[in-house]
Design goal:
Helix content is about 30%, strand content about 20%. By secondary structure, it is of the alpha/beta class.
Length: about 170
C-alpha cells in the first residue's frame, strides 16, 4: 500500500528501522529478531498499514531479506529517521497520527525515533518483540518500567510497549 493512497482513516504506520543484514548480524543479541520483525511487518501489511523502512545511507542495498520492502514502500536513507529524512512529511501527508516502531538497536534508532515521534506529536507503540540491541540488558531495560522506574529514559514513559500479538492495529 502506498503512502499516497492512504486516507485519513489509515492513521497508523509501521516503521522498520535499521533492518540490514549487517546490523541484525552484528548489533542484535538475538538473530531471531529479524523473523519476529518480519512477522510483525507481514501483519502490518495485511492490516493495510503504510510501511516505511529507514536504513543507514551506506547500507541501503543491504536490507535484510526477511524485511525487504514490497512494491513502492518508501526506503529512507538516514542517520536519524526523523532528523535527516522527510519521514515527518510522509506521515503528515498520509494523515498518520500513530506509529509502530520496530528496529535494531533499541538503545539507538528505536529510542531516538520513538522520542522524536513523541516530541512532534505522534502516538508511539514499540513492537517489543521486533526490537533488539547488542546489549541484552539495555534491550530488556529500556522498554520496561522496572529498570528505570524514576527515570525518563524508559520507552514506557512515551510509548505503549507491547509484543506484536497485543498490538491491535496489527490485528484488525
Amino acid at each position: 500500500m502506498t503512502m499516497t493512497s492512504q486516507t485519513k482513516a489509515a492513521r497508523t504506520a509501521f516503521l522498520a528501522l535499521d533492518f540490514t543484514t549487517y546490523i541484525v548480524e552484528n548489533f542484535s543479541h538475538d538473530a531471531a529478531v529479524a523473523e519476529r520483525a518480519s512477522n510483525a511487518l507481514a501483519s502490518a501489511r495485511t492490516a493495510g498499514l503504510p510501511v516505511i523502512h529507514a536504513v543507514p545511507a551506506t547500507m541501503h542495498e543491504q536490507i535484510h531479506p526477511a524485511l525487504a520492502p514490497l512494491g513502492d514502500e518508501p526506503v529512507l536513507t538516514t542517520t536519524g529517521a526523523f532528523a535527516t529524512t522527510n519521514l515527518h512529511e510522509l506521515l503528515q501527508a498520509s494523515g498518520v497520527g500513530r506509529v509502530i516502531v520496530a528496529g535494531v538497536a533499541t538503545s539507538g534508532t528505536v529510542l531516538s525515533t520513538a522520542r522524536w515521534a513523541f516530541d512532534v506529536g505522534y502516538e508511539v507503540t514499540i513492537c517489543a518483540d521486533a526490537c533488539d540491541d547488542p546489549d541484552p540488558h539495555a534491550n530488556a531495560a529500556l522498554p520496561g518500567e522496572s529498570a528505570f522506574p524514576k527515570s525518563w529514559i524508559g520507552l514506557w514513559r512515551i510509548a505503549r510497549v507491547l509484543p506484536s500479538a497485543e498490538i491491535n492495529e496489527l490485528h484488525p
